[in-house]
Specification:
- The structure is a single chain.
- This protein is α/β, with parallel strands linked by helices and 295 residues long.
- Helices cover 45% and strands 13% of the residues.
- It has eleven helices and eight strands.
- Strands 1, 2, 3, 4, 5, 6, 7 and 8 form an eight-stranded mixed beta sheet that branches.
- The protein is globular, with a radius of gyration of 23 Å.
């Protein structure tokens, strides 16, 4: 299935520039050298949607980057490089809305590299075309809400909790007590509302009936080739193939460039240290416990 952008961005000929005139981008590069690297003109911008989709600063960074790409005349089209198992329902839907606005302005193609599940699959629904690696994990259309309850553990530990509240349901999901039947029903209503919205977005994007999507929306995942048979992706391919499709839609050469918002040096340094530390811990845990699926 192919979704067409509402308007195809045009391109201006470099030959129209007066001989000897120094391009504006070269002058800008001399003053702010990182600017040209951030949004190289005429390249397909590749946005990496990796890891959990969480609210707060990380979600805001993704959405801000999408906004910049939508408004930038330097970027003719965008590829969303997906390797994520989803995350926050609200953050995933917020990202979908930002990507949907981008897709209304210029071509957007999504490529599922390793995983495009749950909220990450929802975000990819904004794309005009969706490709997936044959061994990628696709789907998990569903919603999950988990609230730990620890009253018996607290009782064993001799811990009591005193609560003063205004508003009958202000302590909904409180871990120090069990939920009431009314609270469980309210929570289920919230989950169902998220689920219905998820199903509707998939049905609209994939050109399926809501009933058919509900048959698939069990939380199950499929590998890329089976997802293609089910109509959940458009074709089997990788990020390079996604760049080719985006270039065809935009009428530009198939050249891609990863992009991201530039962050302060101290923030980047801290993130790099934290990422290496986390990777080391994860590696040690995997070495000791083993992975459930290996190849």
């Amino acid at each position: 299935m192919t979704r067409q952008p509402t308007s195809a961005p045009g391109s201006r000929s470099e030959d129209a520039r007066p001989t000897g005139a120094r391009p504006l981008r070269d002058r800008v590069r001399g003053i702010v050298p990182w600017k040209a690297r951030l949004f190289p003109r005429g390249r397909i911008a590749v946005v990496r949607l990796y890891g959990p989709i969480s609210g707060g600063a990380r979600s805001a960074d993704w959405i801000e980057l999408v906004r910049h790409l939508r408004e930038s005349s330097r970027v003719p089209a965008v590829v969303l490089d997906v390797d994520s198992g989803g995350g926050s329902a609200a953050a995933s839907d917020d990202l979908f809305l930002a990507l949907e606005r981008l897709a209304a302005r210029k071509p957007l193609v999504a490529a599922i590299r390793g995983g495009g599940a749950s909220g990450a699959y929802l975000a990819a629904m904004a794309a005009h075309r969706l490709v997936a690696n044959p061994s990628a994990v696709v789907g998990s259309i569903g919603v999950l809400s988990v609230s730990p309850h620890l009253p018996r553990l607290l009782e064993r530990a001799g811990v009591s909790v005193s609560v003063k509240k205004a508003g009958r349901h202000k302590d909904l999901h409180a871990p120090w007590r069990d939920s009431t039947a009314e609270e469980e029903a309210l929570e289920q209503q919230l989950v169902d509302a998220y689920y219905d919205a998820f199903v509707d977005r998939v049905a609209t994007s994939r050109g399926m009936s809501v009933e058919r999507v509900r048959e698939l929306a069990t939380g199950q995942v499929w590998l890329g080739r089976r997802a293609l048979e089910l109509g959940l992706v458009d074709e089997i391919g990788d990020v390079e193939r996604a760049i080719e499709i985006a270039a065809e839609l935009a009428g530009v050469p198939a050249r891609g460039a990863p992009v991201r918002l530039r962050r302060p040096f101290v923030g980047r340094l801290i993130d790099r240290f934290a990422s290496r530390t986390a990777a080391s811990i994860v590696g040690e845990v995997e070495a000791r416990l083993g992975e459930r699926v290996r190849m």
